[in-house]
Amino acid sequence: MKTRIALTATLICGLLLSCSQQQKETATISGLNPVDFVTLANDKPVALFVLHNDNGAEACITNYGGRLVALMVPDRNGKPVDVVLGYDNINEYLASPGNFGALIGRYGNRIANARFSIDGTEYPLPANNNGHCLHGGPRGYHACIWNAKLLNPSTLELDYLSPDGDEGFPGNLSLKVTYTLTNDNAVDICYEATTDKPTVVNLTNHSYFNLSGQDGSQILDHIISIDADTYTEVDATLIPTGQLASVEGTPMDLRTPIAVGAHIDDDFDQLLKGRGYDHNWVLNAAGDISRPVARVVSDKTGIVMEVFTSEPGIQLYAGNAMNPRGEKGKKGVIYPSRGALCLETQHHPDSPNQPAFPSTTLRPGETYHSRCIYKFSTQK
Q1: What's the pLDDT tens digit per position in 121-153?
Q2: Alpha carbon 376 to chain centroid distance?
Q3: Active-site residue (options: 135, 222, 344, 348)
Q4: What is the longest distance spanned by two Cα atoms in the chain?
Q5: Phi, psi angle pair for 29, to nearest 5°
Q6: Are 87 and 329 in contact (CB under 8 A)?
Q7: Under a CB-based contact definition with an 8 Å cutoff, are residues 148 and 178 in contact?
């Protein structure tokens, strides 16, 4: 026991020294202090990693849940603006059940009735959302400590071995996720995974974006467009019915740029079920990474975010379930309900139980690949 305590103390001191040195050499644009993210969780070291590009943008990522903690991009006047919600220190992340900025898996979004079958074998999962499994369960990858390696000043590689039976999912899944902050002010996220047993995989990132910055505003005035003619219709518990519903003539039609708040509270069945936008759009790009699938603009800052993905779907979540009393985030700012939106690139929800949807099954000898790019620019 004494030996273990001594080793733990030595490791923490080493991490503190390393992060203190990093802070002296590369003070963060966001104002985050890397020392405030140094700890041990589940006997594994946690830290903050700071990425820079040649244009002065910055991305701060912790290996606790692979979370994007801060993302500084220039507004129309060249001033750096933090466009993602989060906390100032690791203790608040560890105490929060939320998913600010996190990597999500083994299966992003919902699996109906918390179970699925592969090759005739049924696998029960944690039922953590209205009797369904959401985001891989309560101890999904958002709550894991990833191994981290800075490959260069703009690239962070994370890896994790998800053991057979992890939250009920079969197979030892070897994961690698690479964050790159590119010189065109994009966060490029590449996912890879292999398994030793047939399993299902659907990885995504759960960043909460507010392009107006950390000002405690809602995102109802953000202008959004999504290039999709259909979406996956859901039941009262947000499980797909199996029907791909047309957006034509409905508040779900985001093909033409429109304010997020323009129709979010319309008396429309699907919006009532989601308490606003919380749906998966079936993308017209169908995995073509060269085509932007979504675009969001803040008139306050002039910041534009475009999303590119190799995935067939994207979940727009407009922060409907954020605490209506507000939640304290970075710099003491109170984040209100609908204080951010998420654009989670993904295969469709409940695909393991929906044979007509694109398959999420991964088998031994295959490699799962997925890519998502959040690219930032400005309009005058």
Answers
A1: 999 999 999 999 999 999 999 999 999 999 999
A2: 16
A3: 344
A4: 68
A5: -65, -35
A6: yes
A7: no
